[in-house]
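In response to reviewer comment 3 from the previous cycle, which asked for concrete evidence that the modeling workflow produces usable outputs, we include below a single protein chain processed end to end. The sequence was submitted unchanged, and the resulting structure tokens are shown without manual editing.
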Amino acid sequence: MTEIRFHEMPDGRRIAHRFTPGQGPTLVFLPGYMSDMAGSKATALFDMAVHAGRACLLLDYSGCGQSSGDFADGTLSRWRDEVVALIAAAALDKVVLIGSSMGGWLMLMVAEALPDTVHSMIGIAAAPDFTDWGVAQMDKGLLADGETIYEDNPYGPEPTPTHPGFWADGQANLQLESPIGFDGPVRLLQGQRDAEVPWELALRLSETLRSDDVQVTFIKDGDHRLSRESDLAVLMRTVAELVLARETAA
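The workflow returned the following structure tokens.
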């Protein structure tokens, strides 16, 4: 098990991460909302990278996993800055961003911030703009008034909170309203039995991306997590194809 290290942000936040060196481009996994680098997809990706001699970076956003901070203070912009800081600290020249659910929104923001560094992206049930399409109008009113809303959590006993700061920041960083200026390869993996993200969103994201090299893979019986062995096999094949494409192009 590669040692967990901590990167200190200017305000003192300590961001937990794991890094294994190797051939590039570096695989960077971006977890979903309230998730961390101990999840099955992140772990499988890291193990694959270690065995294949590939560079890989995992991280916990502030307020999540082993990173310091309060989850209630978390926003997409805050977490984007943490990802960018880790990539800079590790001096990574080329990366493949792999974003799960909310991480699929965050990867678009990181790619915008690092246009010369991000080689390609893989979205796993990517959920850009979910503060807009995934929140009821009544709840939007409560959030706008500064209240936290809570929803049933299908993955645990505690309800899932949406804090007003996160919601407002999400609304300020909507991606699907205008073309997304990324020209590199993008692969989108989407389960059609996903109860959280409508599978049609993958098509909308594909259309919004400026790149012509976008492929959408639907997994008909796949749920939101896409963490079964068969789902992970699809992910690993997708990663391998992008890495090989990068090396062939080089």
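The mean pLDDT is 95. We consider this sufficient to address the reviewer's concern, and the full set will be provided in the supplementary archive.
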